[in-house]
């Protein structure tokens, strides 16, 4: 009977998927019924709504996750996962700082190897994983503005890969998109000049059709551009990167991507922080810098503290905000980053970092001893402003994100590596309008552009909230959202733009712009 039930459920899902495909192809006749997918407690829900405005009011949009995070189940076309809280059994692993081979004021040299590994995620058990220079995940690479970074990269995997520098302003030849394939056993020298102020960036693979699997199995590392805040905080002492990912493990504690895979985004029931299961973080009673990276394939998270304390967001994807933003909750979609400062100096009790109302992602234990270190807010070296010229520029590129699962498209097309979708001149700012078109079924799309940091001019016709007024490389758009962004490329080359739900990207929700 159990087998018959499973077969019946599978048939229903297949039939629903087929119906969805037909509905997507007949969108013009179904405009009165639109689905919206909302992120709740690190979960995703589909629900029907009728004749709601595409342009959701900005105030509601900012707080929608805080107001509606009530449920811990992921429901995606028959897929359901319950996210488990951290029990705080294991001290958080901090990604090691990679030692350069050699360096000077002008140049820094590193070696990176993508390789297979075996990691003791669970006690007394080895899980097959992928990693950079180690068994799982990767190190943190530090560079400075003005330096020439030289990366000697080796692919020791059994399949091809690339290394994409997510958020880096870089020439197309070094960006690491799907054209820059590195075969098994091949070595590649990659060189780029760091042109940005301090920021928390990252690197991950980007091979065509294989990105989601390789990231899920462990390929992700940090690229840290150093700056003034590094003089106030010490990495691993009161400055901690937090790479949050969700995974599903088999009964034998393995990562089986093929079994976990879902075309609308692969999700998990187990939180890993920096590759640590059931993590906790022990910190001194002082101001602590946390660099958050949503490294999940699909899941979004709304972060807050269990005692409802406020914190200051000091940076977004591309670097420092014009001024720190005081807040009590913050949502990150896949690939988005944020740096926050949490002041624990006057606290007596431990606190938990939460994802939604009830999911503990990181218990934080406070040491009794207070530190003498007092961090002060710093102004960015370059303030981010929308110029009058940018405000008055007409939209020159229209991006329409549509569909879900295997039926995702941009402007009605799937990715073709032989097709250039747009061209743009180097050093010239253009306004891109990015629209998440809703239909019978809608879903969030985090939209990412390679090789640049853009500025958000407006979302649904309104000025973006202050925490979105910094440099960004990824913007999260709910169904019906329409954003105008000011985009400028500093280097020539061919660059990808795509949805950063990695299964959507692999299913063809990607295009390319040639900069000349």
UniProtKB/TrEMBL annotation:
What GO molecular function terms would the record report?
A: copper ion binding; oxidoreductase activity
Report the leader peptide range.
none
The family annotation for this protein states:
Belongs to the multicopper oxidase family.
Q: Which InterPro entries match?
A: Cu-oxidase-like_N, Cu-oxidase_2nd, Cu-oxidase_C, Cu-oxidase_fam, Cu_oxidase_Cu_BS, Cupredoxin
Q: Which Gene3D superfamilies match?
A: Cupredoxins - blue copper proteins (2.60.40.420)
Question: Where are the residues of the annotated region Disordered?
Answer: 24-58
Question: Could you read off the lineage of the organism from its UniProt record?
Answer: Bacteria, Bacillati, Bacillota, Bacilli, Bacillales
Domain of life (superkingdom): Bacteria
**Record organism:** Candidatus Pseudogracilibacillus intestinigallinarum
Biased region (Basic and acidic residues) positions are 31-58
Q: Work out whether the entry's keyword set contains RNA-binding.
A: no
**Keyword line:** Metal-binding, Oxidoreductase
* PANTHER family associated with the record: BILIRUBIN OXIDASE, CUPREDOXIN SUPERFAMILY PROTEIN
Residue ranges occupied by any Plastocyanin-like domain in the UniProt entry: 117-228, 258-346, 400-515
Among its keywords, does the record have Metal-binding?
yes
Q: What is the designated name of this protein?
A: Multicopper oxidase domain-containing protein
